[in-house]
Amino acid sequence: MPQHKLQVEAIAHGTVIDHIPAGMGIRILKFFQLSDQDHPITVGLNLRSKHQGKKDIIKVEDTVFDVTQANQLALFAKDATINVIDNYEVVEKYRVTLPDAIDSVLACPNSNCISNEEPVNTKFHISESASGVVLKCHYCEKSFNQRLFNELN
Ligand SMILES: [Zn+2]
């Protein structure tokens, strides 16, 4: 059996996040607090990939991400693929797409922003520019490069 099959199909039920750029797997785990939940998680780092050279992979058992959750991963891993596994079979497979907005997950880096003072859910509008992904705060309307969030988290 080819290696990639084994890597993807090793869990009975759950979600496999594949094609994460090497180095981003740990960040995604921390950022989405995946390891704070009760589900068994397997992480593969620096796995060999035909297309990416090296990649990370995260397997979360007994959990299926909804598309909104999955697309938040695109902030960190724009080429990630989501494999939904049921009874050791891939029953659904799709690539994440960058969402138009991201709610509640990120804190605004602007310390004067009202979202850091008031009990509101943060919200950022997402767009892509030549220099990368840009997030614009819904409240203070400041724009931040996505790389800044990677450094903060
Ligand atoms: Zn703000």
UniProtKB/TrEMBL annotation:
The keyword Zinc applies. Residues 6-96 form the Aspartate carbamoyltransferase regulatory subunit N-terminal domain. SUPFAM superfamilies: Aspartate carbamoyltransferase, Regulatory-chain, C-terminal domain, Aspartate carbamoyltransferase, Regulatory-chain, N-terminal domain. Residues 102-146 form the Aspartate carbamoyltransferase regulatory subunit C-terminal domain. Binds 1 zinc ion per subunit. Zn(2+) binds at C108, C113, C137, C140. Transmembrane segments: none annotated. Coiled coil: none annotated. Keywords: Metal-binding, Pyrimidine biosynthesis, Zinc. GO terms for biological process: 'de novo' pyrimidine nucleobase biosynthetic process; pyrimidine nucleotide biosynthetic process. GO terms for cellular component: aspartate carbamoyltransferase complex. GO terms for molecular function: metal ion binding. The keyword Metal-binding applies. Contains catalytic and regulatory chains. This is Aspartate carbamoyltransferase regulatory chain. The gene is pyrI.
